[in-house]
Amino acid sequence: MSSAHYKLDNIIAILDHNGLQIDGTNDEVMNINPIDVKFEAFGWNVIKIDGHNMDAIGKAIDEAKVTRGKPTVIIAKTIKGKGVSFMENQAGWHGKAPNEEQRKAAIDELERGES
Amino acid sequence: MNKATREAYAEALVELSKNEKIVVLDADLANATKTSEFKKVCPERFFDMGIAEQDMIGTAAGFAASGKIPFASTFAIFAAGRAFEQIRNSVCYPKLNVKIAATHAGITVGEDGGTHQAIEDISLMRSVPNMVVLSPADDIEAKAAVLAAAEYCGPVYIRLGRAATPTIHDKNYKFEFRKGEILRHGKDITIIATSIMVAKALEAADKLKSEGINVTVINIHTIKPLDKELIINAAKETGKIITVEEHSIIGGLGSAVCEVLSQELPTRVKLMGLNDTFGQSGTPDVLLEHYGLTVESIIETVKSF
Lengths: 115, 305
Known about the structure:
The structure holds 2 protein chains of 2 kinds. By secondary structure, chain A is of the alpha/beta class.
């Protein structure tokens, strides 16, 4: 509210919108939708992107930089744990570190994914 | 003369406005906290954050991180209470130079009642690491405390009141940060008081003197860091301590005094304040009477020690 009230157009917020929280999905625990409409209602410029697309991220930031009179929020839709099969879209990994075996498997998958 | 410490705060802010680094924030209570006086002379460095105390403290932290000296004000219950976590994690944990000048502390808030009368703020604020807690006795000390807080580098909580209270210092008073002030010296018993209770302790001490009871009165304006040496010496000399505060007896000045003495020099202490009860709506004088925070009740406590 205050960012819009004070016209803080030098603020760029990035919402890592993965739909998960600690006790489960957002929908299960405490619905936050429609999150884009909420930000708009509070006077923010809203840009929605695929959070895994670097090009889209760059373009969104560029657009935010030239937006005057209101702050911008980039709602980046993401998959939490993307690239690691046993972590993708799973609540429960928020504060949990993988053990040595899991770590090896995860790094392995990510490296294979890159090639 | 009778003047509210929040009025003195306003005077100090206006004086400080010449310093470009000073910014003032409020949470929709500027006319009550008197930050409105700063707004009159310096509107471009005044920021009302609306009824959003947590946002106010977060924003103050941001200002401090950018090199400004922010003074953030609201009622003590909302400053220390509602925005506690922001004060702890956004101000004190990173040691940012934020000054929280909280007005309307204690029961002398009066008619607004128990929900608005902060009786736990000293307890809350002094338990946070890196926080300095100031509790001035009168308008002269309040102004000096605010100016001293602006000079000090680090988080400060200043406890101010709504009601006009007696001036006990003269205009040549030199505020000594962290040093307790001995206002009367007597061998029989020590009264350690803070804020509006100091004037009452003095009145009680003077009445008792005429009855042959000699009282040491100490004004503690810096609750944290506490002038431990002064307190231990008073305990050594008199052997009996009474603490008086417009605050709960749990966690405030009395508790701080007990912490020092039980570790260094176990001494019997009687704590005067709110006895684990909320305040309520009423005029300041009626409330002080009701909760036993008067000259007469101090005298009675001394005599029955």
